[in-house]
Every structure is written in structure tokens, then in C-alpha cells.
């Protein structure tokens, strides 16, 4: 086929797409061509995450729940709503390894690839999270697939600016940075860098990714590396902010790859005033973040209400659905969004934060 004929064909298909939009909802696949990554190729300059020109940027978005439990979140309508209605810059794909995750079900990686494709399509950055949690040692035999997994991922995405590799969620237990965690990080960083010289790599730290200061004092060599820390405002406050500040002062780039509005259990009451204090700190330092978690599980850190809760609140239309993970309310702009009756108190709080500009002016990168 001649190029011009092909172009006319594509144009014709696009027009058909527009025509059906006027009649009602169309599959997002027709309505949306891939968007470029918002800030182009990311890089770490000094302690800052920066765009391709070296200007500091702050990515903000949502983490999925464990893909082995709530993998249905990886659907096109959800990613479209997250990017367009929630205005998220980034989505984190939490692939647990233990706990019935990748080690038992390696086919879960297909869901990760699908999630990366959808994030790319909607112009979001995407974190591929090797969710080390139980057991806490990243060198435990359950995690033996790490090298092969990151080899495959970094071959696939070497030229895709949207991807960040998060190589361990939360090392925990009696571990030493120098002897346990850092050697694992060095091994996986080398694996990734053999294929992908540039995309950002996020490195967890000890005590459930709170010991960023310890990591910063003895950093992994290489470029475009950042250290992750996690907070839950019911449990972690100024003492953890001090550790994060110490890491920054030591010259490390830090990234908050998980925070929730609750205490560390992910359940119970919300701590929104403490969350505000944290978010102001993150904004001030232009620290990127993803919130735990975008799902309809029955726990208060979940951004969507559960079907059980919908039932309790007498929301009969919602109860008839299998889950709330695929948004179905057609919003004013003609695509599916989650209605306000589907958001939990946590989800409403975080969506409002994402839609608003950060509260403080960031610090310039250079
Ligand atoms: C929690 C989930 C919960 C699940 C549990 C499994 O919210 O539904 O039963 O994992 O262990 C973390 C972890 C993250 C936790 C979360 C809340 O990275 O996996 O999710 N949390 O406990 N660190 C601090 C808190």
C-alpha cells in the first residue's frame, strides 16, 4: 500500500472514531492515540528527578494493589481515568513476588507488560515494582527470579522513556545495608544497565524502606539511581522526615514510591492532617510520590469503596457490578470516570491533591 493511501485509511478510521464519540462512549482504544511521556526522558541531576532538559520535576500518581489480588485494575478505562481525570503523571504496578505473587504465578508479568503499555498510551510514567515484602530479604530464594525478570523488562523498555524500575519494595527484618541490601541492588542495577543505560532505577532501603539515610551514606554507584522511602502518617512522622532530609543532605535522590493515608497497616482511621504535613514536605523538596492504593479492597487506604461498603451505603447500582475497578460513569468530557460515590474518603483526598497544583514552589534543580 502506498503511504498516502495508508494515511487516508488511517484518517478515515480516525473520523469514524470521532463520529461514534458524538453518539456515545466509544472504546478508549479508538478515541486515544499514544501520548508522549510528559517530561520526556527522565534523569537524576544532583538530588532531583529532572526532565530531559534538566529541569526538576515531581511525578505524582497512584500505586496499584498487589496485582495477584486486584489485577483487574490493569484495564484501559482505569488508566485513561487515572491520567485524564485524576491527572496522575505516574502509575506504580505492584507485583508482589511472595504472598501468592510472581514466584508462584510468573504469568503475572504479562499484566505488568499490559500495564506498561496502557501507561505509555496515556502519557504516564510507570514504575515496575518488584514488591519484596514477605519474606523481607531480597536475597531470599523466593526472589531468585529477580535478575531474569529485570533482564527481560530492561530489554523490552530500554528505549521507552516512561519506565522506571523499582527493584525492591521494602526490605525488612535483620538486614544489613552493606552486606544484604546493597549487594542485591548492585547486582540488579548491573543487570538493568547492561540493556538500558538510562531509565531511572529506584532502590529500596532497610526497615521497610525507611533507612534512606543509611543507603545515602553508602550509595550504589551509577547514574539515574534514586532511593525509595515509604510513609503512613499514622505511624511515621518527623523522625522519618529527618531521615529523608539526611539522605538528601548527603546528596541522594529520593522518591516516595508508597504512602497511604492511614497507619502502616493500610487500615483503620485516616490521618489527613499528618498527610498534609508530609505532602507539603514532599512538594517543598519536589519529591515524587505514588499513593497506596488504587483498588476497591475493603481497607481504608484503598481509593475506591468496596462492594460491601456500597451495599452498606445502599448504593444498589454499584452493588450490581463485579467490582469497581473499571470506571463506568461517563463524565462531562465523554470518557469513563469513577463517580464521587465510588471514591473512598482516602481516594477523594488523594484525587483532589493530584488535580491541584503542588502547594509549595519546588527548589530549582541546578
Ligand atoms: C498491604 C495491603 C493489604 C495486604 C498486605 C499483605 O494493603 O491489603 O493484606 O499488604 O501483606 C506496605 C507494603 C504494602 C502493604 C501496605 C499496607 O508495601 O504491601 O499493603 N504497606 O500495610 N508497607 C507499609 C504499609
Please give the structural blueprint.
Layout: H1 3-23, H2 28-31, E1 43-45, E2 48-50, E3 60-64, H3 67-70, H4 76-84, E4 90-96, H5 108-121, E5 125-131, H6 146-157, E6 163-166, H7 177-195, E7 201-203, H8 206-209, H9 212-217, E8 225-231, H10 238-249, E9 254-259, H11 272-284, E10 289-294, H12 307-312, H13 316-319, E11 329-330, E12 336-337, H14 345-355
Parallel strand pairs: 3-4, 3-10, 4-5, 5-6, 6-7, 7-8, 8-9, 9-10
Antiparallel strand pairs: 1-2, 11-12
Helix pairs in contact: 6-7
The protein binds ligand IDC.
Textual characterization of the structure:
With 366 residues, the protein is of the alpha/beta class. It has helices at residues 3-23, 28-31, 67-70, 76-84, 108-121, 146-157, 177-195, 206-209, 212-217, 238-249, 272-284, 307-312, 316-319, 345-355; strands at residues 43-45, 48-50, 60-64, 90-96, 125-131, 163-166, 201-203, 225-231, 254-259, 289-294, 329-330, 336-337. It has an eight-stranded parallel barrel with strand order 3-4-5-6-7-8-9-10, surrounded by four helices. Helix 6 (146-157) runs parallel beside helix 7 (177-195). The chain is globular, with a radius of gyration of 20 Å. It binds ligand IDC. Ligand IDC is lined by residues 133, 169-170, 208, 230, 232, 258, 264-266, 292, 297, 299. Ligand IDC binds next to loops.
Amino acid at each position: 500500500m502506498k503511504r498516502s493511501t495508508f494515511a487516508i485509511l488511517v484518517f478515515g478510521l480516525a473520523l469514524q472514531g470521532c463520529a461514534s464519540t458524538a453518539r456515545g462512549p466509544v472504546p478508549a482504544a479508538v478515541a486515544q492515540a499514544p501520548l508522549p511521556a510528559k517530561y520526556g526522558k527522565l534523569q537524576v541531576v544532583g538530588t532531583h528527578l529532572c526532565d530531559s532538559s534538566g529541569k526538576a520535576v515531581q511525578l505524582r500518581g497512584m500505586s496499584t494493589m498487589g496485582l495477584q489480588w486486584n489485577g483487574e485494575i490493569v484495564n484501559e478505562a482505569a488508566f485513561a481515568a487515572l491520567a485524564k481525570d485524576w491527572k496522575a503523571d505516574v502509575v506504580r504496578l505492584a507485583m508482589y513476588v511472595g504472598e501468592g505473587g510472581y514466584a508462584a504465578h510468573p504469568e503475572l508479568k504479562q499484566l505488568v507488560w499490559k500495564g506498561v503499555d496502557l501507561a505509555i498510551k496515556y502519557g504516564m510514567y510507570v514504575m515496575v515494582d518488584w514488591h519484596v515484602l514477605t519474606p523481607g530479604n531480597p536475597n531470599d530464594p523466593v526472589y531468585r527470579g529477580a535478575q531474569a525478570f529485570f533482564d527481560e523488562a530492561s530489554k523490552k523498555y530500554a528505549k521507552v522513556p516512561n519506565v522506571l524500575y523499582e527493584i525492591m519494595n521494602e526490605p525488612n527484618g535483620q538486614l544489613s545495608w552493606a552486606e544484604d541490601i546493597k549487594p542485591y541492588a548492585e547486582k540488579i542495577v548491573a543487570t538493568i544497565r547492561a540493556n538500558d543505560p538510562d531509565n531511572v532505577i529506584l532502590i529500596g532501603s532497610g526497615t521497610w524502606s525507611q533507612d534512606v539515610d543509611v543507603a545515602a551514606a553508602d550509595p550504589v554507584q551509577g547514574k539515574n539511581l534514586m532511593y525509595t522511602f515509604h510513609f503512613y502518617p499514622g505511624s511515621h512522622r518527623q523522625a522519618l522526615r529527618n531521615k529523608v532530609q539526611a539522605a538528601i543532605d548527603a546528596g541522594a535522590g529520593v522518591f516516595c514510591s508508597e504512602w497511604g493515608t492511614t497507619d502502616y497497616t493500610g487500615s483503620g482511621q485516616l490521618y489527613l492532617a499528618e498527610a498534609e504535613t508530609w505532602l507539603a514536605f514532599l512538594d517543598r523538596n519536589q519529591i515524587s510520590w505514588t499513593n497506596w492504593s488504587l483498588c476497591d479492597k475493603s481497607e481504608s487506604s484503598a481509593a475506591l469503596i468496596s462492594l460491601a461498603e456500597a451495599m452498606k451505603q445502599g448504593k444498589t447500582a454499584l452493588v450490581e457490578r463485579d467490582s469497581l475497578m473499571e470506571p463506568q460513569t461517563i463524565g462531562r468530557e465523554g470518557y469513563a470516570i469513577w463517580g464521587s460515590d465510588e471514591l473512598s474518603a482516602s481516594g477523594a483526598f488523594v484525587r483532589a491533591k493530584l488535580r491541584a497544583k503542588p502547594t509549595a514552589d519546588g527548589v530549582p534543580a541546578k
